[in-house]
């Protein structure tokens, strides 16, 4: 990725230089003259314009997206420069790995990276997305207010995925023993055929919700597979073969089918540690759960992109975790009709859990 960004950086600078020489020859000539004569300063007005284009690009890499857009509003030259699609492709590839969350509204179209628009960056960047997203229509505000007046039942969510079983630190155990974060408000419910149990929590000490955890097999088999780094037979799904494109096809096991009909949404815990995850099987299992429900679009999907511990400072080029944008792509989420969100999460500290739960409750109609 670092090598690709370095190559793209050179392409952006060449694009800037060609554009400047073609459309603003007087600026290019002045920039060249300043280089040769090493003048201290051209004039106070347009001083930034007098720098070579590679220096101009370097300065832009230190600016926030809002600052770059403001720079484009200063004159015709900078308006044209900041509209260069290669510039925003560079920013997109540079910054996407550091975004901590992404959802169905803010996911950039990765298939358009050869010619991305400024909007693809602005709608996905966490510091810009709130200003970029459209405001809620008046009828939605009224509906939300009426929902607030009607007491809502306790929402229930089914949680499953390899991140609940493969990590060194158990996310489920940490959730059960974090009273300062999510107090437990109910004792575990009866297990469903030995593969899952339900626990009620309190969000912000006022919103009660239930999480039903579905495990692929019993605890002894899960622990053995985790220690030996082996795959195990998943009892939650029945393998039906492959489709015409060669992708696996699953159907939920009978005990899971009942759960899918009863819950209000789903929490998928993905293993975001580097090199982990089977994209084709995971995506097929998520589709199997969502497609089994008649009106699945009304049931939101929260993906906790989870690692065991807070990543240490990694050397340049080393990966601490799979970025949430790439987790979303791996799981095929952009192709879903459901509302979905991917939230970076750490099992040990539970970082990111509250943000994800808040989104999930809001998507279920709970007034936060």
Automatic annotation (TrEMBL):
Pfam families per the UniProt record, alphabetical: F-box-like
GO cellular component, one term: SCF ubiquitin ligase complex
Gene3D superfamilies: 1.20.1280.50, P-loop containing nucleotide triphosphate hydrolases
Domain of life: Eukaryota
CDD domains the record matches: F-box_FBXO4 (cd22085)
GO BP field: protein polyubiquitination; SCF-dependent proteasomal ubiquitin-dependent protein catabolic process
Segments forming domain F-box: 45-91
InterPro entries tied to this protein: F-box-like_dom_sf, F-box_dom, FBXO4, P-loop_NTPase
Protein name as annotated: F-box protein 4
């Amino acid at each position: 990725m670092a090598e690709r960004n370095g190559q793209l950086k050179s392409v952006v600078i060449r694009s800037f230089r060609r554009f400047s020489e073609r459309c603003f020859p007087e600026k290019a000539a002045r920039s060249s003259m300043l280089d040769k004569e090493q003048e201290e300063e051209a004039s106070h007005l347009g001083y930034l314009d007098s720098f070579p284009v590679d220096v101009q690009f370097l300065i832009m890499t230190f600016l926030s997206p809002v600052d770059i857009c403001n720079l484009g509003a200063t004159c015709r030259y900078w308006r044209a420069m900041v509209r260069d699609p290669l510039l925003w492709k560079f920013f997109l590839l540079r910054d996407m790995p550091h975004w901590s969350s992404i959802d169905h509204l803010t996911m950039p179209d990765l298939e358009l990276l050869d010619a991305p628009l400024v909007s693809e960056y602005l709608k996905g960047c966490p510091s810009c997305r709130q200003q970029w997203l459209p405001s809620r229509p008046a009828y939605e505000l009224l509906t939300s207010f009426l929902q607030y007046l009607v007491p809502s039942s306790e929402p229930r969510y089914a949680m499953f995925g390899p991140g609940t079983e493969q990590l060194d630190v158990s996310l489920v155990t940490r959730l059960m023993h974090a009273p300062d974060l999510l107090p437990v408000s109910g004792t575990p419910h009866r297990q469903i055929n030995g593969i899952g149990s339900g626990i009620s929590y309190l969000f912000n000490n006022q919103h009660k919700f239930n999480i039903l955890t579905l495990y692929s097999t019993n605890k002894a088999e899960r622990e053995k597979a985790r220690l030996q780094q082996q795959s195990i037979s998943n009892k939650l799904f029945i393998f039906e073969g492959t489709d015409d494109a060669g992708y696996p096809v699953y159907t939920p096991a009978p005990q899971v089918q009942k759960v899918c009909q009863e819950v209000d949404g789903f929490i998928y815990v993905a293993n975001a540690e580097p090199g982990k995850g089977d994209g084709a099987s995971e995506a097929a299992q998520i589709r199997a759960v969502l497609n089994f429900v008649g009106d699945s679009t009304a049931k939101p999907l929260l993906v906790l992109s989870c690692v065991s511990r807070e990543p240490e400072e990694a050397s340049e080029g080393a990966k601490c975790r799979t970025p949430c944008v790439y987790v979303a792509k791996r799981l095929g989420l952009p192709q879903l009709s459901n509302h979905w969100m991917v939230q970076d999460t750490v099992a040990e500290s539970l970082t990111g859990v509250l943000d994800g739960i808040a989104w999930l409750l809001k998507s279920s109609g709970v007034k936060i």
